[in-house]
Design a protein that fits this description.
The structure is a single chain. The protein is α+β, with helices and mostly antiparallel strands and 124 residues long. The protein has a single domain (7-122), classed as Arc Repressor Mutant, subunit A, CATH 1.10.10.10. The chain has 5 helices and 5 strands, in the order αααββββαβα. The strands form 2 sheets. Strands 4-3-5 form a 3-stranded mixed sheet, with no helix packed on it. The chain has a two-stranded antiparallel sheet with strand order 1-2. Strand 3 (77-81) and strand 4 (87-90) form a beta hairpin. Helix 1 (7-18) crosses helix 2 (24-34). The longest helix has 13 residues, at 40-52. The radius of gyration is 17 Å and the shape is globular. The termini are far apart. The model has no long low-confidence stretch (mean pLDDT 93). Bound molecules: zinc ion (2 copies). The site of one zinc ion has 7 residues, from helix 5. Fe cation binds at residues 75, 110. InterPro entries: FUR, Fur_C, WH-like_DNA-bd_sf, WH_DNA-bd_sf. Its cofactor is Mn(2+); Fe(2+); Zn(2+).
């Protein structure tokens, strides 16, 4: 008998195929195509495991809420397409923390979202 894809493997596959930060609904929708038994509770349970073992990290988006992305990419920023609501990774960092904050502020971290229209939506 062929072993069925585990729920966790299905979720991992979704992240590897999309290669961008994902919200719970897209994870659930895409994961269900691989493993039918997936539901919101099982997705959350598996996301929690993948966060705990460091395979995923959370990204807090100002309007989309919590997104999940794969770790190991290094520091980078994100682009939010206002038409398709997808969030894309942007390479590298164009922000100089020392110049961005006034004197007296100690910057420890930053997160940056660019908003606009993605190439796929521009072509429509
Ligand atoms: Zn788009
Ligand atoms: Zn940065």
């Amino acid at each position: 008998m062929k072993r069925k894809t585990s729920q966790r493997a299905a979720i991992e596959q979704v992240f590897c195929e999309r290669d961008r930060p994902l919200g719970i609904e897209e994870i659930l929708e895409s994961g269900r195509l691989l493993v039918e038994s997936l539901n919101q509770a099982t997705v959350y349970r598996n996301l929690k495991l993948l966060l705990e073992n460091g395979w995923l990290r959370q990204v807090y988006h100002p309007s989309l809420g919590t997104l999940y992305e794969r770790t190991g990419k290094g520091h980078h920023h994100h682009f939010h397409c206002r038409l398709c609501n997808r969030v894309y990774d942007l390479p590298g960092c164009a922000l100089n923390e020392k110049e961005a904050a006034p004197a007296g502020f100690v910057v420890e971290d930053h997160e940056c979202f660019l908003f606009g229209v993605c190439p796929a939506c521009r072509e429509k």
